[in-house]
Amino acid sequence: MKFEEILLALIARAPSSGYDLGRWLATEGQFMRANADQSQIYKTLNRLLKQGLIEFTIAKRDGAPDAKIYSVTPAGGQHLMEQTESEYVPPDRWQEPDFTARLACLVPINPPSVIPLIDTELAFRRDQVRRFRHRDRTVRLVPGIVPMDAEVMAELLDAMHYRSAAATDSWIVWLEQQREKWTTYLATRAQDGARVS
Fold first, then answer.
1. What pLDDT shows up at residue 139?
2. Separation of alpha carbons 162 and 15, rounded Å
3. CATH number for position 21
4. Which of 7, 9, 157, 195 has its C-alpha lying 20 to 30 A from 34's C-alpha?
């Protein structure tokens, strides 16, 4: 997910200043992408302004500089909605932040998009487990080049494998739990909507 979309989604949640966005990115945002400095944030906000995806009002502040408070335009809202329907291609490493960025930033825009997102991630991770869990992990060392004993090296690599396998299994369980919760939530929401109609 591009930085522009992350900022746009944050502004869609609540109109924000560039400073507010920087504070969020330095705390919650660090789990979705590398930190962004304030100059990068303001450059991105200017691009979003030029594209007509956001606008701003000036908030007067006593004893402090006035602040630009950015909000999403209808075009920006449409752009975000299109992003919720864009293809998600899982990276090889599940620890990459694209999935969590989409979950945190795009799902609030279009809640039903969560199910295809989770299904794509689940299918990819289950396939990885199927293909790689029982791969040949035999250690072959070139004598005289690597000083470590092959048996010790094999133990190290096995320990890393089992740790990664446990983490991947835990991720899959979490995804399954989230899918179940979201399926229930969306069904309840649909029933409540039907009752209101």
1. 83
2. 45
3. 1.10.10.10
4. 157
Q: What's the pLDDT score for residue 196?
A: 55
CA angle 12, 16, 35 (to 5 degrees): 90
Provide the 10 A C-beta neighbour count for residue 117: 21
What is the pLDDT at residue 66?
A: 87
The string of DSSP letters for 48-94 reads HHHTTSEEEEEEP-TTS--EEEEEE-HHHHHHHHHHHTSPP---SST
Residues of the domain holding 166:
110-196
Q: What is the pLDDT of residue 147?
A: 77
Residue 14 lies in a domain: yes
Residues 6+ apart with CB under 8 A from 119: 179
The conformational region for residue 36 under phi > 0 = left, psi -120 to 50 = alpha, else beta, is: beta
Round to whole Å and give the CA distance between 100 and 117: 10
Site of tokens 């399926």 = 183
Say whether pLDDT at 106 is over 60: yes
Residue corresponding to tokens 């399954």: 176
pTM, to two decimals: 0.84
